[in-house]
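Ligand: adenosine-5'-triphosphate. Inputs:
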Amino acid sequence: MSCFRLENVSYRYSRSPVLTGIDLALEPGEILGLFGHNGAGKTTSIKLILGLMTPQQGTVSVLGGTAGAPEVSQHIGYLPENVMFYPQLTGSEILNHFARLKGASLEQVPRLMEQVGLADALHSRVKTYSKGMRQRLGLAQALLGKPKLLMLDEPTVGLDPVATADLYRLLRTLRDAGTGIVLCSHVLPGVEPYIDRAAILTGGTLKAAGNLTALRRQANMPVVLSVIP
Ligand code: ATP
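Predicted complex:
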C-alpha cells in the first residue's frame, strides 16, 4: 500500500492552474525530496494529500484510503513551514493537546520531546523557546501517534548544523522503520544525501521524479535541476 498516490492531479485556486497533471507516489520506507522554487506548488501538493482541498482533476489516494478521511488523517504527521504555537503554554501542554486531538497516547510526549532534543524544555513555556526549539517542537508534534506518512515543509529552517544532522538521523531511523517521508525544500545541498528520490516541480508541473544520480545522467536535467540550486 502506497503512502500516497497522485494520479493526473490538477488544481487551481481561482483561474490560473497551480498544479497540472501530476503523477507522483510515495512508498513506505522511502524519503522523497519535493523540490521547487517559491510558488512551484509544493504546499498545494501537501494540502491535497492532507485532504484539505480536492483536485478539480485526477485522484489522490492516501494510505489506501481517501485523503482527509479521519481514519487516514490519524496516520499522517505534518510539519508546516511556519510553525506557530501558543506562547504561554509549555511544550508538554502543547504536545498533550495535539495528542488528544489526534487520539494518541499522552505517555509518548516525554519520549518524543527527548527524541527531538527538548527534554530539558518539557515544562518551559514556548515563549522562552528559540526558533530552532519551536521547529523541533513542531517536529515532535508531527511525530505524535507514530505516523505512517510524515510530511515536512522546510524542516531545517532555523536549525543549526548539529540540530539539522540530528533531524536527518531521526528521519532515517523513521524511514528504516517503514515511515514514508516527504521533505519539501527550495534547495538541494544539505538535503540530497538524505533522500531516496527527488521530485521537481516547476510552474505546477512535475519536471522530473526519481533517483537523483539517475536523473543527473539524463540530457535535459541540468536545466531542470537548476531550479533547485
Ligand atoms: P513556497 O516555497 O513559497 O512555500 P510552494 O511551492 O509551496 O511555494 P504553493 O504555496 O503551493 O507553492 O503555491 C503555488 C501557487 O499557488 C502560488 O502561485 C501561490 O501564489 C498560489 N496560491 C497558494 N495558496 C493560494 C490561495 N489560498 N489562494 C490563491 N492562490 C494561492
